[in-house]
Amino acid sequence: MRYELLGPLRVSNSRESHLLSAPKMETTLAVLLVGAGRITTKDTLVMELWGDRPPRRAAAAIHVYISQLRKFLAAAGANPTRTIVTKPAGYLLRLDGASYDVVEFQEAMRDGREHHLAGRYEEALAAAELALSLVRGPVLESAVEGPVLTAFAAWAEEELLAALELSVEARTALGRHREVISLLGTLIAQHPLRESLYSQLMLVLYRSGRQAEALSVYRDAQRVLRAELGLEPCRSLRRLHHAILTSDRLLDLPTAS
């Protein structure tokens, strides 16, 4: 069995994938997966499914959704009584040996960060690319409105960006600067207030012999931050700007071991 939540929710076995067509059931399973291994309370499910305007028989409706989910998971090859367990306060979803893309993503990112800190940039890049390969698109196909899934979707978006940054950092440390220039430009357009992206683009441009363009990126960052936040660039970005202005030889030192 395999659960995938980094994109449209999907449950698969060795033969085929199974999708939920009913939005309420999809939301219920997604909330249980976010809290896998922990009890998800009935109140949490009510809030995720209906917000502050639940129907009169909300508890009965949730009972029906859980029953239908057990049948769905049984059809996909899971043991339904072991997978979703009823508790006094709510429901517990057990992975019970199944693989789960969220866990795999977290493990890949942990490994990638550890490799990067240790100077093992090839391994860091491989881990980042593995993490990125697990992300198939926005969380769920139906609208995400409840607090649990909204927070999870925000976490997934932030972690996707972190994985992209880790990939860029590893490639930069390996001297593969030209591979990431276009990607960084796209990421800055999507996240114009993220100063680390400006720093990375400035560095790779400078190391590619494009000092003037690197300085132009700093001016762009300065303009955006002043206009949007009324702030100057952070200290590390200002230091990088000064180092590029003065052609500091430290910028040319290889960082890969």
What is the secondary structure topology, with strand pairs?
Layout: E1 2-4, E2 10-12, E3 17-18, H1 23-34, E4 39-41, H2 42-50, H3 58-76, H4 80-83, E5 84-87, E6 90-93, E7 99-100, H5 101-117, H6 121-133, H7 147-173, H8 181-190, H9 195-207, H10 211-229, H11 235-245
Parallel strand pairs: 1-7
Antiparallel strand pairs: 1-2, 2-3, 4-6, 5-6
Widest beta sheet: strand line-up: 3-2-1-7
Class derived from helix and strand content = alpha+beta
Distance between the termini: 40 Å
Give the mean pLDDT: 93
Give the C-level CATH assignment of the largest domain.
Mainly Alpha
What overall geometry do the principal axes of the alpha carbons give? Answer: elongated
Q: How many distinct beta strands? A: 7
Ranges where pLDDT stays below 50 over 5 or more residues in a row are none
Brief summary:
The chain has 257 residues and is of the alpha+beta class.
Textual characterization of the structure:
The strands form two sheets. A four-stranded mixed β-sheet has the order 3-2-1-7. Strands 4-6-5 form a three-stranded antiparallel β-sheet. The radius of gyration is 23 Å and the shape is elongated. The protein folds into two domains: 2-98, Arc Repressor Mutant, subunit A, CATH 1.10.10.10; 175-257, Serine Threonine Protein Phosphatase 5, Tetratricopeptide repeat, CATH 1.25.40.10. With 257 residues, the protein is α+β, with helices and mostly antiparallel strands. The protein has eleven helices and seven strands. The model has no long low-confidence stretch (mean pLDDT 93). It has helices at residues 23-34, 42-50, 58-76, 80-83, 101-117, 121-133, 147-173, 181-190, 195-207, 211-229, 235-245; strands spanning 2-4, 10-12, 17-18, 39-41, 84-87, 90-93, 99-100. Strand 1 and strand 2 (10-12) form a beta hairpin. 32% of the residues are buried. The longest helix has 27 residues, at 147-173.
